[in-house]
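Researcher: Here's a chain I'd like modeled. Treat it as a single chain, no partners, no ligands.
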Amino acid sequence: MLTASGLSKSYGGRSLFEDACLQINRGDRVGLIGANGAGKSTLFSLILKEASPDSGTVALERNITIGFLPQESAPSGDETVLELATNISSEMEEVRRLAREHTDEDPIHHEAMARFAELDGHSLEVKAKRILAGLAFRENDVGKPARTLSGGWIMRAHLARLLVMDPDILMLDEPTNHLDLESLGWFQNYLSKYQGAILAISHDREFLNAICVGILEIRNRKLNRYRGNYDDYLTLKAAREEQQLAAYKNQQREIAELQRFIDRFRAKASKASQAQDRIKQLARMERIEAPERDEATVSFSFPQPKRSGQRVITLEGVKQAYGSHVVYANLDQEVERGQRTVLVGPNGAGKSTLLKVLAGMLPLDAGTVTPGHNLSIGYFAQHRTEMLDVKRTVLAEAMETHTPVPEQTVRTILGSFLFRGDDVFKPVGVLSGGEKSRLALVKLLLNPPNLLLLDEPTTHLDMPSIDALIGALRQYEGTLLFVSHDVHFIRALASSVLHISAGKLTPYSGDYQYYLEKSGSQSERAALIAPGNYRPEAEAPAEESPRVKMGMREIKEQRRAEAELRKAANKLARESQARLRSAEEEIAQLESRQRELVAELETPGNLNGGRAFGLNRELAIVQERLSSVLEEWEKLSASLPAVEEEKMA
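Model: Modeled as a single isolated chain. Structure tokens:
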């Protein structure tokens, strides 16, 4: 349906594409990824004919339709949400306008409505209402003027219009930014059955894993295609880079040998013709480029907050309601120092409300919120970007902190959040929504409180920025509570889970994997909005001082129970140590085999025929297993001290 060949494009002397090629067929669902500024949006512009390539062509089959959802700033006017969702052509939009601007008695109105019926407008409305409901619009919302909605809901209405339109190629730029988890689940399911082709820019790993059958990476000015979803791409890319590196090293050795022969014998009459042959051989040789490694993660440190008390903040008897809708009736909750807790539960359960209550952003209907010793609170939500001074430069705004921070430190952290070079001198007012979010996060990290409350902090962030945020929060020594729909982000940071449903809070004293196992959820993302019809394992209540003196029988029973607990703890410690030793032995074996395979790939002659394919395939399997065992070893190493402590108790 879509073919691009020989594409080259430069901006300001910087080359984005050189002889790049692309083909999209019916039924393809492709994720478009690449570093910030690699050219993803430019490629979309070339396909949509909004920009022209310096060379090459973009060709579409005849009568192919394209639907495009921009990342931000889709237009809206006087039309209702339903009208916007059914305006799938310029003619339909004009018919709607005429019908709206003329009264029922006007012949123009009757002509417009007759044409609306000919265009099958009533069937479109039924389809649009079904799609709008899937995207979480309520029935009484569809008749509202679109311009009265927030930007995120306008984007949802435009997304609905594209799905009603049902184009042959659906082009989406960060479509998950404006969807809650329930809508996202519906949307992913809809796309999995979509008959046309999909080309989507996204930073959401779970979304790419759920819908993609191919990944297109912009890298080194080329378009590299990989089969499978995002996880498959990571595995295939690693194997491809190993193969390319081995081929590059082999060729460099061959070049060096040819050059040595030329340098040694070109002046000797008896060898001159052979030297000339090798010169021609070098000239004809198609050079293999060294694989371009991903940019190393920027290493930095930032100021740490003052230490809070052990009891960070306490809620007692809290009631919080929005009109007649009661979110919490009699909430008691305590936050302790060092917690890294993700809040999960159905949409509307009160996750964001709890963060606002803790942050003091909402007046309570009843109850008290008691801060602990030396507490300072930082609350991050999207509105935080509105607190930025649009007249300052990025650097000046980042430097504006309560505690002075060296400029070099500020610039390093800005660089890790993709504000590099002259970007730091841009006025804040010209930044995109995503750039403002990144800047607001930088300011928070440069002057961190000891209680950090984050509401969907990864929205509008691309993958490198998310990884930079994860790296920063791993260094953070305070207490962290957050809401997120990004499973990768959650897995990287959460050490405990708090499930919220119907005003009830259920704690899980393990990481997200532990929560998944206890909840029995069908998918990692579904578990984020599960209603909570399950309970974690019962935990022993805290020991209380006895009110009466125990008799001999009770003492014997207590001692027997304590002995059983010590026996179980000893057994658990032995099992953990055995598993740790087994993991260490397997890691040593896998690393040895990895070195052997790399050495074989670097040996001249081993890249002929199917030999290289077999070696690379085994190398990919070994690397994947090694990664899995290393992760298991890290978890065992982290848990062993706690197991030993339990053993000694």
